[in-house]
Each structure stands twice: as structure tokens, then as C-alpha cells.
Amino acid sequence: MPKKMKALSIALSLSLLSGCAFFQPDTKAPQMPLPTSTQAQPDWISDAWWKQFADPTLDQLIEAARTNNQNLALASARVDQARAVLGINTAAQLPRVDLGAAGSRQKVSEKSTTAALGTYNDYQVAGVASWELDLWGKLANLSEAARRNYLGATYNRDGVELALYAEVAQTYFNLRALDAQLQIATDTVKSREETYALQTKRFKGGLISELDVRQSESELDIARAAVPDLVSSVARTEGALAVLIGSDPKTIIESTPARGRSIDQIDKAPAIPSGLPSDLMLRRPDIQSAEATLIGTRAQVEAARAAYFPTVSLTGLLGVQSVSFSNLFSGAAKTWSFAGNLAMPLFDGGLTAAQVDQARAVEQQALANYRLTVQQAFADVRGALISNAESTKKTKAQSDRVIALQRQYKLASLRYDNGYSSYLEVLDAERSLFDARLALVDAQLAEANTRVALYKAVGGGWRLPDKQS
Q1: 0.90 exceeded by pTM
Q2: Looking at residue 163, which CATH number applies to its domain?
Q3: Which three-class secondary structure state does DSSP give residue 42?
Q4: Which of 4, 110, 166, 273 has the maximum number of C-beta atoms within 10 A of its C-beta?
């Protein structure tokens, strides 16, 4: 027994050495030149960034999407799958113990060397243990690769969640913008119907020519023609928003998403600084996912390299065996065995080398993807920062234009009523005002959406999970 305990102790010590395995992957992300910034994390960046728009309806839509969106459910299921794979690879590093029982009746050939046994029974109950000693870190690296894949799946789910919330917010803002434009078109139709009726009376009274009536009628038809397209756009956007928040088919058909603040009442949140800390962007879920994937492929390379070296495994059996069931659990029926096995490739036709090359190629793909993801992230932030600043200027300019055209329309109407100008001046001013009001809504929508795009570009305030090493 002491010899067996000594052998087991040696095996355990060798296995523990796998924690200091010969092949360990580099767990550091590649260094890339980043813009310098001394700025601390801005106050406007938070996990619940959508609350800065101060619209309770938007908050409710985001919460519904978190609970019911199927893309997010799919990403969460992939996290569960990756967690299970990690459990499988972790279990492979530990001893396996199985319990088996068997019973048989057998007749031995009279011509065999064991002919004296004749017909006999054989009963056996035994525990069988097996353990592959991870001397070169193959199993440890496979487990590390699975852990990194699990992290990558988790960060990917975070990225899906961030993109989902951004899409919900932008779709909701688009819906409110369409609502505003539909209201503008409807109000314009009503106003032009009144103008057309007035012009018809004036024509019948001989005060104006038929030309003025037909011009008024044409402008009325233009406004009427804008309404159906806007109604259709509203319906499509309502459907898109309903899908994003995970509404069931009955709700999609029979109900419409709730409305909150109008597009011109949406809070634009605090001012955005011109620069941001570089480490803030590196916390984006897509960058974290790309980094985890890269480190996982490095572990796969080390696991592939370990195949060049011997595989050492231990097996043991402890149980009872007897030809008589009544004696099966007696002391004399005890049986045991202990064995070690070593296997090492001598010639495999280049298989191991090809597998290592394949793993290295996958690593290079992951490295290129990581660098590309970082590059794209900083390009997104730069574009979002500039667009955010410029969209505010555009909204202000469009608002000033509407005010100016409202004054122009009023003056043109006065000149026409007093006989100083033709009706064309009124029509031109009215047409320009209608287009400008629609354009102002577009500018307000763009300003809200660029703010959402900026939140998305900086990662929405996502924090590094505690599980990240």
C-alpha cells in the first residue's frame, strides 16, 4: 500500500506541474499607438445612457427589448453554450471515476487450457479511475481557450445588447420624427384646403383669375400627396420597433408602440467634449471580444504544440470479483489494478506540424481582426464626435430658417392681399416654409441619432467584467 500511495503522490505532483506548463499563451493584448488624452472619464458616459434623453417611454421600450428581444436571447444562449464547453474542458483536467457492475455465465471449451473450469459464473463490481497527466499543458491550454471563448461570447452578448438599445432609441426617434412630419403635412393640407376654398370664392366673385385658383389647387395636391408616404413610413417604423422590443404577433398587428416626448422636446443631454480617454474606447464590447478571441487562439496554438510530446495517462481499478454472488463482497473477492501508459508520436506524416500551422494561421486572423476592431472603434468615435457637434449647428440653422420663412410667408401674404405682388410669391414662400419645417424635423432627428451613435461608439459606458483577467 505505501508504494501505491507513493506512486499516486508522484502522479499528483506531476499533474500539479501543469499549472507551470512548458507552453503558456501570451495573455496580453497587442500594443498599438493610441491618441494621448489627459481627460478623465466624462460624466455623460453611463451604462444607462438612454436615460439622459429624459423620456420615460424610451426607458420602457429599452426594458422591453432587454426582456423580449430574440437576437439578445440568441446571444445569451451562445454564452450558455460557451460556458458549458468551458465546463467540459475543465473536467478533462481532472481524474474520471466510473462505477461498473457485471455478471455473466460462461462455458469454457473442453479443448482449452482452462477446461477444468467447465461452466461457471463471473460477478464483478469495480470502480475504474482514469487520469491524463497534463505535463505539457495541452489540457490546460484547451481549457484556457474555452475560457477565452466564453469571455468572447459574453462580450459579444454585451455588444449585441448595446447595439440593440441604440437601434431601439434610433428607431423610436425616427418614429417620433415621422409623427411630427405627418402632423406638419396634415396641418398644411388643412391650411391649403382653407386657402383653396377662399381663392375659389374670390375667383367666383371676379376678384382674381382662374390661374390663382389652379396654383392654389396644385399646392394643395402636393401636400395631400405627401401624407400617404408618411403614413406608410410610420406604419413600417412602428412594426420595426415592435419587433425590436419583442412584441408578439397579435400585438404587432393590433397595437402600436407607445409615444412619449415629441422629437423637438427630446433632451440633447450634456455637452460632449472634443476628446475622450483612449482606455475608454478599449472597453468597447467588440474590442474586448476580439481580445478574448485572440488570446484563446494563442492557447490553441500551445495546445497544438503539446502534441509533439508524450501523453501520460494513469488507470486504476478497485473492486470485487467472484464466481459466486454470495462471496462477491467477502474479503477474498477484492481485486485491484494500477497502470500507467505513455504514448508519443514517432511518425504521423506531418499531421502535428500541420495542426500547429493551422492554429497559428487562426491566431494571425484573430490578431488582424483585433487590430482592425480597434482601428474601427477609434474611427467610429472620431466620426461620432464630429457629427454630434455639427448636427447641433445644423439644427440651429434649420430652426433659424423656419423662423425667417414664417416671416417671409406672412409678408408675401400681406403684399398679395394689398395688390403689390402676384400669388406666385405667396406660393413660393408657402412651399419653402413647408419644406423647411420638414427639414427641421430631419435635423432634430439627426441630432438625436448622432448622440445615440456616440454613446454606441464609446461602448455605452460598459465596464470590464470581474471575470476578465
Answers
A1: no
A2: 1.20.1600.10
A3: coil
A4: 166
